[in-house]
Amino acid sequence: QPTRLWGGRFAGGPADALAKLSVSVQFDWRLAPYDIAGSRAHAKVLSRAGLLTNDELGSMLAALDDLEAACASGEFKPTIDDEDVHTALERGLIERLGTLGGKLRAGRSRNDQIATQFRMYCRDHARIVGRLFAELSEALCDQAELHMGVALPGRTHLQHAQPVLLSHHLLAHVQAFSRDASRLRDWDGRTAYSPYGSGALAGSSLGLDPAFVAAELGFDGPVANSIDGTASRDFAAELAFVLAMAGVNLSRIAEEIVLWTTAEFFYAVLDDAYATGSSIMPQKKNPDIAELARGKTGRLVGNLSGLLTTLKGLPLAYNRDLQEDKEPVFDSLETLETVLPAFIGMMSTIRFNTERMAETAPLGFTLATDIAEWLVRQGVPFREAHEVAGACVQACETRDIGLSDLTDADLAAISAHLTPAVRAVLSVSGSIASRNAVGGTAPDRVREQLADARKDVALQ
Ligand code: ARG
């Protein structure tokens, strides 16, 4: 007897080539626990509608428990003849219950089943990924707290720009990750509706209660429209986007770790447990975690664009194209679930070379803006102040000295406004302390930011 869920109107079985093309159990078997949870809720709703006796419901639930345990232990496995997870599990149920197992399929379709189970899987795994991002943010907050007061040259165009606190820089990444976390929460709110009961597309006729099933499966309610319930996959595409965006954010800090661990920067040293060596060059210590995080972001972006392309132009309602929705999303979730623990370990154990950072903080004339702004406070128009500070930089550059090496006479020769009092702002710590408006790099502001970030992370 074939395990197929269809066949009555066909003269024979499918061609081998079709079966091979059609099969999805190799990837949708991940959904087995959700399929069984759905079956349990569906059995209950059938019994509430008077379509299963209490005894039948009891046997059905016991068989589902047994099947669930057999799946978990690996004792029950899908075979190559099982087209998909639903087919395999119906086979398992019938092996346990005989003909009674055939009653469970009433009033449901694989179309509403798959849409529901996929949502459940995504919601669970999005929560796992969200927790991992929260852990990463926590590790960055810990580093920010530990290094409060350490300055480094902030950069634009990768060129030295203005000195900032290392903590401020690390917390900038935390801000991005907390937006990713909030996108995941928003996404979950939109995805919390169950398509179960939508049937093939038109809804179920057997007096089944979709709201009951939705509540059993942890949803906020049933979908409002059965066609939409079975046809829509924007929840999958949106999740793929949120994950791709988070991956892109991760790739930006990853790139900085790659740069910071070079001999030229020498801003950070990786812990041995989170770095790799070379098979030929004995001295090598490579930042593979950061590189893999950066590289795998390509998959996340590809998964998003592949899925959107699959969805584009599909007529309502279900089309078999939709079977292509799962692998990209599974891959994005699993990629981040693999990358993040390593990345968290790397960021919690990385050692920052704070002396080197501090030493390079004033290099590249990073205090030039402070001279211009000091002049503004003396009443000089910024346009002129900018020119004067620029002339200071030029004078230093030709003589290969720093701004603080200019003598009183040098300063006076550049502009009568440049009295020796300007020296007060020619220090990295003075510059950092002066940027004390909300969001700035002044130590008090950064401490407030850290406290807020910690509160936000605790809510994730
Ligand atoms: N395996 C399908 C999917 O992933 C679900 C089954 C629906 N199949 C069908 N012929 N209506 O979308």
Brief overview, please?
With 460 residues, this protein is mainly alpha-helical. It is built from 18 helices and 6 strands. It has 3 domains: 16-106, Fumarase C, Chain B, domain 1 (Orthogonal Bundle); 111-148 and 163-200 and 220-359, Fumarase C, Chain A, domain 2 (Up-down Bundle), CATH 1.20.200.10; 360-459, Ribonucleotide Reductase Protein R1, domain 1 (Orthogonal Bundle), CATH 1.10.40.
What's the helix and strand layout?
Elements (H helix, E strand, L loop, with lengths): L15 H7 L2 H4 L3 H17 L5 H20 L11 H13 L12 H37 L4 E6 L2 E7 H26 L1 E2 L15 H7 L4 E2 L3 H6 L2 H27 L7 E2 L18 H24 L14 H24 L1 E2 L1 H7 L7 H10 L4 H18 L8 H7 L13 H7 L8 H17 L1
Parallel strand pairs: 3-4
Antiparallel strand pairs: 1-2, 5-6
Helix pairs in contact: 3-4, 3-8, 4-5, 6-7, 6-12, 6-18, 7-10, 7-18, 10-11, 10-12, 11-12, 14-15
The chain binds arginine.
Describe the model.
It contains 18 helices and six strands. It is mainly alpha-helical. It folds into three domains: about 90 residues, Fumarase/aspartase (N-terminal domain) (Fumarase C, Chain B, domain 1, Orthogonal Bundle); about 220 residues, Fumarase/aspartase (Central domain) (Fumarase C, Chain A, domain 2, Up-down Bundle), CATH 1.20.200; about 100 residues, Orthogonal Bundle (Ribonucleotide Reductase Protein R1, domain 1). The strands form three sheets. It has a two-stranded antiparallel ribbon with strand order 1-2. It has a two-stranded parallel ribbon with strand order 3-4. Helix 14 runs antiparallel to helix 15. The chain is elongated. The mean pLDDT is about 95. The site of arginine has 10 residues, from helix 6. This is Argininosuccinate lyase. It is found in: Cytoplasm. Belongs to the lyase 1 family. Argininosuccinate lyase subfamily.
